[in-house]
Amino acid sequence: MPPTVSTEAVHPAVAPIRVPLLAWLLAVVALIVFYLLLQENGMVTTGAAAEYLHEFTHDGRHALGVPCH
C-alpha cells in the first residue's frame, strides 16, 4: 500500500492578504504622481504651467529614462 499524503501537505492553506485602505490610497497617489512625472509636455496643462511642470520634473524624467527633447 503506497503512503498517503494529505492534501494540506501538498497544498498548504494560504491566509488571505488584507491590504489596508491607506496603502491603496497611497498607491493611487503614487500612480497619479508617476503619470504627471511622465506626461508629455503640454498633455495635462498648457502654457506657462506646462513649462513649469516640465522643468520641475525634468531631471526626474531623465533619471527614469523618459525622453523629453
TrEMBL record:
Pfam families with a match to the protein in the record: CbtB
Transmembrane domains' residue ranges: 21-38
Keyword tags: Membrane, Transmembrane, Transmembrane helix
Protein name: CbtB-domain containing protein
InterPro entries, per database record: CbtB_put
